[in-house]
Amino acid sequence: GTDAEKHRDLLAAENERLRQEMKACEAELQELRWQQQQAPCCDCPHLQENAGLQEQLSQLQREAEETRAKLVELDLEVQQKTNRLAEVELRLKDSLAERAEEEERLSRRLRDSQETIASLKSQPQQIKYIIKTVEVESTKAKQALCETQSRNQYLQEQVGMQKQVLKEMEQQLQSSQKTEAQLRAQIMMYEAELERAHGQMLEEMQAMEEEKNRAIEEAFSRAQVEMKAVHENLAGVRTNLLTLQPALRTLTHDYNNLKRQVRDFPLLLQETLRSARAEISQAIEEVHSTNRELLRKYRRELQLRKKCHNELVRLKGNIRVFGRVRPITKEDGEGPEAANAVTFDADDDAVLHLLHKGKQVSFELDKVFPPQASQEEVFQEVQALVTSCIDGYNVCIFAYGQTGAGKTYTMEGTAANPGINQRALQLLFSEVRGKAADWDYTITVSAAEIYNEALRDLLGKEPQEKLEIKLCPDGSGQLYVPGLTEFRVQSVEDINKVFEFGHVKRVTECTNLNEHSSRSHALLIVTVRGLDRSTGLRTTGKLNLVDLAGSERVGRSGAEGSRLREAQHINKSLSALGDVIYALRSRQGHVPFRNSKLTYLLQDSLSGDSKTLMMVQVSPAEKNTSETLCSLKFAERVRSVELGPVSRKAELGSWPSQEHLEVPKRLAGDSPGSAAPPGRGHASPSPGQLSSRSASIRRKLHTSG
């Protein structure tokens, strides 16, 4: 306690010294402010330095207050420990006093017992009387004899009582000795406990003393370092003020001269101000125009970069991933759960942001369609892939997402607003009609579904018949489905009939999440076979349009019985699709295509021999953010898969000369009917043009600045 008081006194003295130094610093700062008010300077860098010094001073004051608070807390802890030690000492004194009183009482009782025993021993021995019958005639003698007998009986009674008292005193003595032994053991236990408590108290006091000394030393060293820094800053401020005084005098002299000139020439001042305002407004306008030009060029370069990225993705064979966000519907309900949790980037149409559990997560895809995007806008982005199947390429477009996210609407659409399936076939017919002068095309359509891991024909007479997937016997390694019905279509009317026939047989049921939930994976297989009449070149292209069943949580969808079994098969097949994507992304030697009928049927589309596009459908509702997050993460993983360049399925028949071998090559995804993207045909600027353009922009910025 004495050492703590000494340290406290030292710390109080140090605080007093720091307080005096702070007062001196405040006085110097006050003097500096007064000098600044007397001779103000515009845009002086020392104002910021003074502000920084003031902030440091306030920080030192706060730290001094914190040090005082810590000292007060340490004093309170020392006082509490001292009070506890005093209480323990008082209890020890009380216990010792009680022990002394008990020993005194027992010794008194022992002395009394010993005196009683001694008094009993000092009494004469009992006299045995021999009674004889003597005939006495005297009455006095008879009376004396009676009195003697009564006296003898009384003495015998007294002797018995004294023996009983002696026995009781011996018993009390034994019990007193037992009590004394117990009290001695209890006193020894109390003494041991007091010694242990005293040792603990000493250890705690020593630890507190060490902690207090360490805290005081740390606070003292930190205060010394900070005060040293403050002194150095103040010395710098003084030096700067000494160097600023001549500059201030010069500025004051110039200011007075300008003031006299302004007073003498007010008209010249007004004209100068007008010209300055005009120059400033002109410079601002030039800066605005330059900024607009730079923004326009930036957006143009962003579009060009995106086109180059798409071309790179096409050459690498990556799976292209488009995202589409459905609008908020009445099925989402009302309240916070139906709030919109998805936002979009105004400058980049490939980025969307998801608000999940209070945190914003960003995702970058190849293209993102907002809720207001129409079916026509979606199809414009995929029509280049659709038309490439005419040139002999395999194309696969599949929709992925949770149940109720709008996959079936995107792929099939409605009668008034058709989806990708019907629009793709209409586009194929228009392209075929445009090439009818040189080419003969045959378009066949097949439709199938995977229901509970069973492949069924939607266009066959027996839709319940299970089909199998097998390898082509021609040794090409391609997969085909024996017994799958193919319809040859020649017009849009044939397409509508096929769609109506297949849509009726597809399995859909009502769940808690979707009134018309697809309970199977639907596949529309379009095969385009072409023959060039002039060269004999034969091409075969296949377009797979897949509408996957939505992943669902059984707890939310309320599926039971057969619906539960369907949901389990759907989730299992989608999990197998995720395993395939993971294996492709990590370039594993074995890809588990055969773990599910869905992945086995999509093996041609996912193994590098097809142009593949995934349309991920998400819900913007707040209650579906967990499913939306999982779908977008899966889409990013799919986007990073590289399948390699796509090969064209073409073979030459008989030709009249070697010149017909020179078949014009097209880039993957291009078609004769698709127009070149804007800006693709422009020549890239040379390095000289770029340097001259950047130099002119820098000159404009310098002039406007």
TrEMBL record:
<keyword id="KW-0206">Cytoskeleton</keyword>
<dbReference type="GO" id="GO:0005813">
    <property type="term" value="C:centrosome"/>
</dbReference>
<comment type="similarity">
    <text>Belongs to the TRAFAC class myosin-kinesin ATPase superfamily. Kinesin family.</text>
</comment>
<dbReference type="InterPro" id="IPR019821">
    <property type="entry name" value="Kinesin_motor_CS"/>
</dbReference>
<dbReference type="GO" id="GO:0005874">
    <property type="term" value="C:microtubule"/>
</dbReference>
<protein>
    <recommendedName>
        <fullName>Kinesin-like protein</fullName>
    </recommendedName>
</protein>
<dbReference type="InterPro" id="IPR001752">
    <property type="entry name" value="Kinesin_motor_dom"/>
</dbReference>
<dbReference type="GO" id="GO:0005871">
    <property type="term" value="C:kinesin complex"/>
</dbReference>
<keyword id="KW-0175">Coiled coil</keyword>
<keyword id="KW-0968">Cytoplasmic vesicle</keyword>
<feature type="compositionally biased region" description="Polar residues">
    <location>
        <begin position="686"/>
        <end position="695"/>
    </location>
</feature>
<dbReference type="GO" id="GO:0008017">
    <property type="term" value="F:microtubule binding"/>
</dbReference>
<keyword id="KW-0597">Phosphoprotein</keyword>
<comment type="function">
    <text>Minus-end microtubule-dependent motor protein. Involved in apically targeted transport. Required for zonula adherens maintenance.</text>
</comment>
<dbReference type="Pfam" id="PF00225">
    <property type="entry name" value="Kinesin"/>
</dbReference>
<dbReference type="GO" id="GO:0007018">
    <property type="term" value="P:microtubule-based movement"/>
</dbReference>
<dbReference type="InterPro" id="IPR027417">
    <property type="entry name" value="P-loop_NTPase"/>
</dbReference>
<dbReference type="GO" id="GO:0005524">
    <property type="term" value="F:ATP binding"/>
</dbReference>
<dbReference type="GO" id="GO:0005912">
    <property type="term" value="C:adherens junction"/>
</dbReference>
<keyword id="KW-0493">Microtubule</keyword>
<dbReference type="InterPro" id="IPR036961">
    <property type="entry name" value="Kinesin_motor_dom_sf"/>
</dbReference>
<dbReference type="GO" id="GO:0030659">
    <property type="term" value="C:cytoplasmic vesicle membrane"/>
</dbReference>
<keyword id="KW-0505">Motor protein</keyword>
<keyword id="KW-0963">Cytoplasm</keyword>
<keyword id="KW-0472">Membrane</keyword>
<dbReference type="GO" id="GO:0003777">
    <property type="term" value="F:microtubule motor activity"/>
</dbReference>
<keyword id="KW-0067">ATP-binding</keyword>
<feature type="domain" description="Kinesin motor">
    <location>
        <begin position="318"/>
        <end position="641"/>
    </location>
</feature>
<feature type="region of interest" description="Disordered">
    <location>
        <begin position="654"/>
        <end position="705"/>
    </location>
</feature>
<feature type="compositionally biased region" description="Basic and acidic residues">
    <location>
        <begin position="659"/>
        <end position="668"/>
    </location>
</feature>
<feature type="coiled-coil region">
    <location>
        <begin position="8"/>
        <end position="123"/>
    </location>
</feature>
<keyword id="KW-0547">Nucleotide-binding</keyword>
<feature type="compositionally biased region" description="Basic residues">
    <location>
        <begin position="696"/>
        <end position="705"/>
    </location>
</feature>
<feature type="binding site">
    <location>
        <begin position="401"/>
        <end position="408"/>
    </location>
    <ligand>
        <name>ATP</name>
    </ligand>
</feature>
<keyword id="KW-0965">Cell junction</keyword>
<feature type="coiled-coil region">
    <location>
        <begin position="166"/>
        <end position="222"/>
    </location>
</feature>
<dbReference type="InterPro" id="IPR027640">
    <property type="entry name" value="Kinesin-like_fam"/>
</dbReference>
